[in-house]
Amino acid sequence: MKGRNYAIIVAAGQGKRMGTSVSKQYLMLGDKPVVVHALQAFDEQPVIEAMVLVVAPSDVEHVKNDIVRKYGFKKPVLVVEGGQERQQSVYNGLKALVRFEDVDIVVIHDGVRPFVTGQMIQDSICAADKYGAAVVGVPVKDTIKKVDGQQFVVCTPARSELWQVQTPQAFKYHLIWEAHEKALQDGFCGTDDAILVERLGHPVKMVMGSYCNIKITTREDLILAREFIAGGLV
Fold this sequence. Notes:
The protein has helices at residues 34-43, 60-71, 86-96, 118-131, 173-186, 194-198, 219-230, and strands at 4-11, 28-29, 32-33, 48-55, 77-81, 103-110, 133-139, 146-147, 153-155, 163-172, 205-208. By secondary structure, the chain is α/β, with parallel strands linked by helices. The strands form three sheets. It has a seven-stranded mixed sheet with strand order 5-4-1-6-10-7-11, sandwiched between helices.
């Protein structure tokens, strides 16, 4: 890989489904907040130059003092304000990377996925270096049904063709920038970054992740995450 790789960690959500006064990314998981687990995973990777941490505007000072300074990351961590939607937050993170002139690949990760591994990060970067765009995911275990507006089954897609998408998602910087610019112009809002690249007609490579690479959204997810740690699965 000739260029340099940077990470955008998205942690601007309010976590309303968690039902707690503290946003889910700042809840304690083991001996540190959820988002710190994710940050440390990227901080420990030699292939990552620096990280952009995108947070809610009201959290910027708290994060600078109680997360970045407190946990003493080895690599630079830029804290930037997020937007109303995740897509806007990622776009803000991409704009923050403009200060670096050597950005080749951008790895985008949810700050509430604490169990990302170095292997996932490296594999996604290698795939993005080769194909331009890559997403981590796992094959679905359950049969999936597509339904109509009245909840009647329309079809049953072949399970062998279905993957559950996770993060990290890695892209050539110029490609993901173009994809976000196009989405902004069209007024399109996607549920992940890969769909924005797909809209350009560019292929996206799937990379194997882990069933432990969960996204902490509800109380049940937090309980499961703590069980993973207690059971030595992560």
